[in-house]
Hints:
The structure holds two protein chains of two kinds. Chain A is an alpha/beta fold. Chain A is about 40% helix and about 15% strand. Chain A contains ten helices and nine strands. In chain A, the strands form two sheets. Chain A has a seven-stranded parallel β-sheet. Chain A has a two-stranded antiparallel ribbon with strand order 1-2. In chain A, strand 5 (about 105-110), helix 4 and strand 6 (about 130-140) form a beta-alpha-beta unit. Chain A starts with a strand and ends with a helix. The model of chain A has no long low-confidence stretch (mean pLDDT about 95). Chain B is mainly alpha-helical. Chain B contains six helices and no strands. Chains A and B meet through loops of A and helix 1 of B.
Amino acid sequence: xxxxxxxxxxxxxxxxxxxxxxxxxxxxxxxxxxxxxxxxxxxxxxxxxxxxxxxxxxxxxxxxxxxxxxxxxxxxxxxxxxxxxxxxxxxxxxxxxxxxxxxxxxxxxxxxxxxxxxxxxxxxxxxxxxxxxxxxxxxxxxxxxxxxxxxxxxxxxxxxxxxxxxxxxxxxxxxxxxxxxxxxxxxxxxxxxxxxxxxxxxxxxxxxxxxxxxxxxxxxxxxxxxxxxxxxxxxxxxxxxxxxxxxxxxxxxxxxxxxxxxxxxxxxxxxx
Amino acid sequence: xxxxxxxxxxxxxxxxxxxxxxxxxxxxxxxxxxxxxxxxxxxxxxxxxxxxxxxxxxxxxxxxxxxxxxxxxxxxxxxxxxxxxxxxxxxxxxxxxxxxxxxxxxxxxxxxxxxxxxxxxxxxxxxxxxxxxxxxxxxxxxxxxxxxxxxxxxxxxxxxxxxxxxxxx
Lengths: 272, 169
């Protein structure tokens, strides 16, 4: 568990993303599979689920799944606003809220900084009015880091969401240290490079020393590398597989790698 | 979109290849046995194109228009849009094309335009072949399929151009 710096509320270090994986439309069988992933996620102690109006039917599938599994009280709902002009933001947020079936979101983020100069003040106003608990901004795959930094320095945000994994470590230089300095929680997306990274490393045996930090599989090693960074609040791997969500949640247990071990993980993966 | 050049084609895919194929599978199951109607309509278009009478050209265009409008509504708007918000625009484009063909069938009695040639045809064929590979399940191939469909819309012959084989009224 890690505290959200702005309140001290504690969140599990492994959350659940929904990009691509939960966009299954009205396919009942696929929806049921997503609901089972969510059930296992909560059963393993998970809380934060992240989505966006950009993700097709993912929000509706999450809402459908929450109904199916009895709407766990532990849910920490993280969604985004992604529309321009920003005057359409309130209507989009309301549509998202109805799709999830929640009274309010725990976290609302400006997706990929789209129209952020207008959206962010509106989200902050919602927070003041008690209509959302936290506000944040997101980016992915290293885009617009200069803008992200500038916003982190100048605006009262609770969360920042960035891409970070054992091979994509650009945020280590400035954004993660800045998050610690400013007391901003960090959500990490693309922990497996959208599956490409874990597919690549899984062709090789797990190094024997992974046991030293309680890793039984590659997913746990890759996630532990991320959440071991002291600035990171949680990583949000996405999956359609119950087996994979169990593996991912396993990364929240046991020891985390120290800095020497993290360097060892980098060196090993880069050699593969 | 800022820094658009940093995006790859597959970044615009919102769904897994398996989800797309399930969509097609469920769509075909739901419209069964409508596939036979489509097959008969296709054969009818071919038969009509063999004739040179005005009504035959009109009939072929009307059947094609019906096909376009069906795809706009039954596939893009009703089903594909559930996993891809851009499909609403595909539906609109298909509907506009269908309406244009219908208008041409009524007003000008032209014949359906032939396939594009030259560079446009070659590009279309390349993308079509790439999209055919999408059965292998690679996201970039599925993305190529989407581009092919978009180019097919944009690159098909303009219906207000004179027909290459005009029909005598």
